[in-house]
Write a structure and sequence with these properties.
The complex is a heterodimer. By secondary structure, chain A is mostly helical. Chain A has three helices and two strands; from the N terminus they run αααββ. Chain A has a two-stranded antiparallel sheet with strand order 1-2. Chain B has one domain: Amidase signature (AS) domain (Amidase signature (AS) enzymes), CATH 3.90.1300.10. Chain B contains 15 helices and 13 strands. The termini of chain B are close together.
Chain lengths: 96, 488
């Protein structure tokens, strides 16, 4: 089923991407529709009685004891932030 | 010197016929001379490399060396390297200096290897031609008009042009095997869970797997030895004993059952690529293997299934790039939403955005069952096909790609035709199996690859078959002549 421009705008908002005001707005719609037409092949496949798998080996994830293994790296991690101050990540004002 | 394999270089180091500093300098000089035309490297770690090589030389002199001591290698720029830029081929991480080492990087350091630099790749490993990189495409050493393949294009081309004896790569839908095939090197994607993903920038977490690219299967065995094993920092790494991969390289292929899936030889396969597989079958028969026709009936569903699952996982994984904690941030955001949206819109390239949008779409309310759950069911069917086949055969053989390398720009305007390049490799990731690509011939001076697929944790068998094949063929020993000039 082709994706409408309206759906694409909604999806883009969910993904926090701007597609308005870009020259390639139309080509995004055309590309996505080509990709969706290709993946649509699976919707006709008979999968009655087949359980979905998220892990090909169907292995359970291992658990470990909940103990601290890492050293404190707060400063080196904050140093990567575009804006940080007083040990905090800074973002634009959320509440006026 | 530069065309020697890792095994040969280790021999020279062990006999004290060269030092690691000398070796490292040879490869650094070659990179500086030739990489302008190839663009394999995003970052060169020259000073660190020479210092580390000097340390390894001292260790060797004292008899304290490890099994890969002094061997220069390159890491795909998807592996976090402490104190070194780790860009993942993206503007989003152009300013990111990793504060820690990936487990694979740590393992290679402990094995004594020297890091030459970080290799170019498709942005966030999303691509089959290395053209989606923020740092520009990698060119194919065999023909500079051709793509090197992707996403581990820099890693493959660096080995092919002898700028590095070995490189790491990652493979989510063919990203080690396809560039290996297109550049005439040997590349191995291990079983999902064999190699730790800790510190490997996540694209599609249920499919991603790191592995080696090198000149020979023997070198891949040496590299995998350093990479493989359980890691408490990656809960999806599997706790299975790691065999000695070199110990079984010379096992006889007498009676090894090799399956040829008929679905790999249908429309779209270049006749000369098919001919190279037929030639390989004869070679393997000569080595004692028994060839059996098999069927993987759901092969045609692999690409559509992948383009639901991989983008779904990518859209989730890439949601962490928000301009707040690390990576690119847009200028003067008006508010928090503007910060998120503009940072992501400006920081990601077109292909990454396409995949995030597809992934968000298939996970959104109303489409989740029809696409995502259905894809996970078809994934099970594809996995079942392989398990059925492995009841009758030990190894599956086919082409790695339908065609040799295409020209730069040839497929960049048509994402779907680009996706179909991975038709023979993607099903292996969906099933989590190990597979290897090795050189199998040339079409108009562009290399073609042969793919061997094994059952879970059968990496040693794949390496054994490839090594035996490479003992009586010389496709893997061919190197592109324009980079032959020695600098030493």
């Amino acid at each position: 089923m082709p994706i409408s421009q309206e759906t694409i705008k909604y999806i883009a908002h969910l993904a926090r991407l701007n597609i308005e005001n870009t020259r390639d707005g139309d080509s995004i719609q055309a590309d996505l529709n080509r990709i969706v037409a290709m993946v649509d092949q699976i919707t006709a496949t008979n999968t009655k009685g087949v359980d979905p798998i998220a892990h090909s080996l169907e292995a359970a994830e291992r658990l470990r004891t909940d103990v601290v293994t890492e050293t404190d790296q707060r400063d080196s991690l904050l140093a990567l932030a575009p804006k940080a101050e007083a040990g905090l990540f800074l973002v634009p004002i959320v509440l006026e | 010197m530069h065309t020697k394999t890792i095994a040969q270089l280790l021999d020279l180091l062990n006999k004290r016929e060269c030092s690691s500093v000398e070796l490292t300098q040879i490869f650094l000089d070659r990179i500086k001379r030739y990489d302008k035309s190839l663009n394999c490297f995003i970052t060169l770690t020259e000073e660190m490399a020479l210092a580390a090589a000097a340390v390894e030389d001292q260790k060797r002199a004292k008899g304290q060396h490890q099994f890969l001591s002094g061997i220069p290698i390159a890491h795909k720029d998807i592996f976090c390297t402490q104190g070194v830029k780790t860009s993942c081929g993206s503007k989003m991480l152009d300013n990111f200096i990793s504060p820690y080492d990936a487990t694979v990087v740590k393992n290679f350091k402990e094995a004594g290897t020297i890091l030459l630099g970080k290799t170019n790749m498709d942005e966030f490993a999303m691509g089959s031609s290395n053209e989606t990189s923020y740092y520009g495409p990698v060119r194919n050493p065999w023909d500079l008009k051709a793509v090197a393949g992707g996403s581990s294009g820099g890693s493959a081309a660096a080995v092919a042009a002898s700028l590095s004896p070995g490189s790491t790569g990652t493979d989510t839908g063919g990203s080690i095997r396809q560039p290996a095939a297109l550049c005439n090197v040997t590349g191995l994607k291990p079983t999902y869970g064999r190699v730790s993903r800790y510190g490997m920038v996540a694209f599609a977490s249920s499919l991603d797997q790191g592995g080696p690219l090198a000149k020979t299967a023997e070198d891949c065995a040496l590299m995998l030895q350093a990479m493989a094993g359980v890691d408490l920092k990656d809960s999806t790494s599997l706790d299975k004993p790691v065999p000695n991969y070199c110990a079984t390289l010379n096992a006889s292929l007498e009676g090894v059952r090799i399956g040829i899936p008929k679905e790999f030889f249908q429309a779209g396969l270049h006749p000369e690529v098919e001919a190279s597989v037929q030639e390989a079958i004869k070679v393997l028969e000569k080595l004692g293997a028994k060839i059996k026709p098999i069927s993987l009936p759901n092969t045609g569903l692999a690409v559509p299934t992948y383009y639901v699952i991989a983008p779904a996982e990518a859209s989730s994984n890439l949601s962490r790039f928000d301009g707040v904690r690390f990576g690119y941030r847009c200028h003067e955001p008006k508010n928090l939403d503007d910060l998120y949206k503009r940072s992501r819109t400006e920081g990601f390239g077109a292909e990454v955005k396409r995949r995030i949008l597809i992934g968000t779409y298939v996970l959104s309310a109303g489409y989740f069952d029809a696409y995502y759950i259905q894809a996970q069911k078809v994934r099970k069917l594809i996995t079942n096909d392989f398990q059925e086949a492995f009841r009758e055969v030990d190894i599956i053989l086919g082409p790695t790609t339908p065609t040799p390398a295409f020209n730069l720009g040839e497929k960049s305007n048509d994402p779907v035709s680009m996706y179909l390049c991975d038709i023979y490799t993607i099903n292996v990731n969906l099933a989590g199996l190990p597979a290897l690509s090795m050189p199998g011939g040339f079409v108009n001076n562009r290399p073609t690859g042969l793919q061997l697929i094994g059952n879970y944790f059968e990496e040693a068998k794949l390496l054994n078959v490839a090594h035996q094949f490479q003992q009586i063929t010389d496709w893997h020993a061919k190197t592109p002549t324009i980079f032959e000039e020695s600098l030493s």
